[in-house]
Amino acid sequence: MLKWLKILLVGFLVSCFYFPVKYSFIPIANTKNLMAAVGLVLVLVVLIKKQEFSFPRDLLVILIFAAAMSLISLLAITYNQTPDTTYVTYIRSAIIWLSGAFGVCYIIWLVHKRVDVPLVVNYLAGVCVFQCIMAIWIDFSPAVRLFVDSHVQQGQDLLQDIGRLYGVGASLDVGGSRFAATLCAISFMLVQKPEDRGNTPQFLLVLAFVIITVLGNMIARTTLVGVGIGLFYLVLMEIRNATLRKYDDGYRSSLPAWLLTLAIAVPVGMFFYSSNAQFHDLMRFGFEGFFNLFEEGEWGTDSTGKLESMIVWPDNPGTWLIGDGYFENQRNDANYIGTATRRGYYMGTDIGYLRFIFYCGIFGLIAISAVMVEAGVIASKAFPKYAHIFMMGVLCNFVIWMKVSTDLFPFLSIFASLGFLSSDLEYLKRHDQEEAEEASTPT
Length: 443
Fold this sequence. Notes:
Helix content is 71%, strand content 1%. By secondary structure, it is mainly alpha-helical.
């Protein structure tokens, strides 16, 4: 019982990092910042025990790119004389995410006495499933909604006004992007040998994939990016594994697990779709494109229609190079005298690539892209066996930027931090064992 309570506590802390919120009973900071503070303390503990105070060179490269993004943003708003400091503090955000990720990994190690990629993926999958279930529960139960809204500050008024589901910190494209990255990680684990996926049953992984796909799309259709990339990868690897099974029977097809899961999920989904009007509307929203394709013969959603109208290119070299210094809506600037009065974000576009260019130019876009790529490279170097997870995470990030500017550094930072923590934890494990042996040796 105690073991499961510890696991639930770790899951809660992972959620605090991955889907940060601000609780009414902890008003001093949101949970991301609190996890970063915990991570910073744990970093100091590790360094003191190792008596080594060097900083990992590869992590320093990430921070240099993040600092470049901050500097370019500062130059952009200074040159354009705008007050929009959205990405001027990006170096601070990168440090907070890396520190919080370190704390998450260290806490997992404290409970399990090990921390590896499969275990981290299991926690991320479990947290995403929890968020999806909570979102449905909140939407269907006024009592649960009242409880969550009373204790969690996450912009519920806006979410309720636009009629969107939300979990405990998981909402809109921020939640959808992290669901998408997690789905890619799950798809990788499904086609690995049992020992390479932490002996997690395929059925549980498939069940998590289906729940996040269905309920996650009801929260944010950005989740579909991960569904598409994950399923494409899954099909390719199943074809490859069919050949490998002739030489190594350790590879197991995930098809039986898929058939079993879908045999349960499809009838349940059809039942609620046909009998519950609320669930019916949520399904039609989450999979609007597929319903339109089936009913009208053309794939499309309300979002894709709006997206086409948001393709607005800079009309001068200066904007391409250094941007206009606006990321948010320019109407927030009382001194704005330009003519860009479209509704929504600056220049009326929510497309990530364009928002970065309009804010700090092509150089800023290159800098923040380098942060994502470097985080994926660091994780791949540390865990080459799982490199496809991080490659898909980076790919997810760049695909999602075609729609919104939300980045996936929170996902990538966990594995980047884990890569450097692994060797430190092995040292600490040996150190603790030696201390235990010395204490048990009679003098």
